[in-house]
């Protein structure tokens, strides 16, 4: 890929989605399964199936189905308990989910001195410890509400999904046209992110040179 001389003079942002882009699969269900155990996870998912069906039939919006799921599994945990679980998941489970080619691409951007950004609808409780260890410059994910030091299960603010990703970026970088933006995604919810980038990669990665 050739970069125009005008764009090569701009500071560069390398923006990565997480689930399905950096990883081979969704991360939320493995996280919830780790918390409650395999048997209990499937029993809970069976009882939760009416909500999942409503989401599949587009009767329940994404954020609402997700919030119901998070409340069902996580409400009542203390903030400290959830942070410990997030750290454990980040250390032990996430490395097994990663795409080697995605990691290689991320590391190439690091070596070029580009500002690397992880932006995802996944929970910050496990994104933050993993992404900080990897060396991402900025991590933007979905946060959970805490009341009296206890997790309610409700989403704090908005689910970092679709157009919300652009809003989050614009809060940090007011004029994205002042940057050369590389964006990596894998899902229809990433289409807005890919659309604003100078170089968009849908289910593929920049061919890098070691």
Automatic annotation (TrEMBL):
UniProt xrefs under InterPro entries: HAD-like_SerB, HAD-like_sf, HAD_hydro_SerB1, HAD_sf
A GO term from the CC aspect: cytoplasm
Cross-referenced Gene3D superfamilies: HAD superfamily/HAD-like (3.40.50.1000), SG protein - dephosphorylation function (1.20.1440.100)
CDD domains, per database record: HAD_PGPPase
GO MF annotation terms: L-phosphoserine phosphatase activity; magnesium ion binding
Key word Lyase present: no
Pfam families registered for this protein in UniProt: HAD
Any one GO BP annotation for this protein: L-serine biosynthetic process
Keywords: Hydrolase
Family as reported in the entry's similarity comment: Belongs to the HAD-like hydrolase superfamily. SerB family.
Protein name per UniProt: HAD-IB family hydrolase
Record organism: Aphanothece hegewaldii CCALA 016
Lineage, top ranks: Bacteria, Bacillati, Cyanobacteriota, Cyanophyceae, Oscillatoriophycideae
